[in-house]
Every structure is written in C-alpha cells, then in structure tokens.
Amino acid sequence: MRAIIYARVSTEEQEKKGYSIEAQLESCRSYARAKGWEVVAEYHEAKSGKRAENREALQKALMFMEEGGADILIVWRLDRLTRSLIDFVKIIERIGPRIASVMEGFDMSTPEGKMLAHILASFAEYEREVISERTKKGLHEAKRAGKKIGRPAKIPMEVRKKILNLRKRGYTYAEIAEKTGIKLNTVKSICHRAGV
C-alpha cells in the first residue's frame, strides 16, 4: 500500500516537548515499515490554525490523496491533522476512510479504526473548546482588572486629540484626513467612537 505522511507542530512548546516535525515523521516512517507500506510522499508544516483549510501542506497532502497518489494518510497523532470534528468529517468526505494514526494505533480502513477515529475527533474538538472557553474567561477577567487587551493603538494619542479637536471645530472628515494624513475611514471611526 502507498502511504503519505503529514506532520505538524503549532507552537514552540510542542517542539520542546518532543513533538518536533522530524520526530513525528520518523514515528510515521517506522509505522509504515511495520505495516509493509511504501511511503511515497511526506508533507509537514509548522503552523497553528484551527481550520484545516488554512494549512497549505495539509491541503497539498489531501489533493495528492484525491488524485490517487496514495492509498493511506499517516499522522503521528489525530490532533496533528485536526481538532475539529467538522474538519475531520470534511477530510473523510474528501479522501474517504484512509487515515492511520501512529499514537492512537488505529487504521481507519477497519471498522474499529473508523469508530475510534470518530471518538478521538470528538474528544479533540471538546479539548479545543475547553481551551477556548478558558482563554475567553481569562481575557474577560483581565479586562475587568483594567488591563489593556488587544493590539496597541496605531494612531498616537496626540494625533487622536488633534482629530477630535478639528472635528469639534467643524471640520469635515475629509478635511481632517487631509490635514492629519490619516485615512478617511480611520478619522470617521475615531470621531464616531468619541461621539463627535
């Protein structure tokens, strides 16, 4: 059977914990050798991202499978492929039940493997949602404590004050944009937020 390998790390922390791309690839190669499968291609990327469609190497791997380049896709662990049940189902719709996971020890070409894969995908999605909830709660608590959240303001405070003063003196948005060199939409946004 012809196999391809997909490996991914999403954070430096994963690299430090031994989930490096090379470690994943080597585990997948060993798994393929033990099964007697020929590895015909390897795809890897260091990219975070909840959505599978945003990962270029994964999309190339799936396209390779769709075009008949391989019979099975090997991943080190299912969450390297996706943590979203929706994405997992979309991947199965594209390439069929042709996924094997080294760490979970399943091959989706078997009925047991199919069942286990769906259970693991559900848990992976649950884990992602729990992390998301914790993050939202942490941000909410930080805001309540008066901490600034988000990107720093692009427009310096003195420029904002100048924009607001000009607006209070009756200048149009276009005139203010011309005088300050700030984009018209940004001028409007600053004035609207300040209620002037």
Question: How would you describe what is shown here?
Answer:
- The chain is α/β, with parallel strands linked by helices and 196 residues long.
- It has 2 domains: 2-130, 3-Layer(aba) Sandwich (Rossmann fold), CATH 3.40.50; 157-194.
- Helices cover 57% and strands 13% of the residues.
- The protein contains 9 helices and 5 strands, in the order E-H-H-E-H-E-H-H-E-E-H-H-H-H.
- It has helices at residues 12-16, 21-35, 56-66, 78-81, 85-95, 111-144, 157-168, 173-180, 184-194, and strands at 2-9, 38-46, 72-75, 99-101, 106-107.
- The protein has a 5-stranded mixed beta sheet with strand order 2-1-3-4-5, sandwiched between helices.
- It is elongated and about 80 Å long.
- The N and C termini lie far apart (69 Å).
- The mean pLDDT is 86.
Global Rg: 25 Å
- Which secondary-structure class do the elements indicate? alpha/beta
Number of DSSP helical runs: 9
CATH architecture classification of the largest domain: 3-Layer(aba) Sandwich
Strand order of the largest sheet: 2-1-3-4-5
Strand-helix topology:
Layout: E1 2-9, H1 12-16, H2 21-35, E2 38-46, H3 56-66, E3 72-75, H4 78-81, H5 85-95, E4 99-101, E5 106-107, H6 111-144, H7 157-168, H8 173-180, H9 184-194
Parallel strand pairs: 1-2, 1-3, 3-4
Antiparallel strand pairs: 4-5
Helix pairs in contact: 7-8, 7-9, 8-9
Summarize this structure as a short list of keywords or feature phrases.
elongated; 57% helix; 2 domains; 196 residues; 5-stranded mixed beta sheet; 13% strand; alpha/beta; Rossmann fold
What is shown here, in short?
With 196 residues, the chain is α/β, with parallel strands linked by helices.
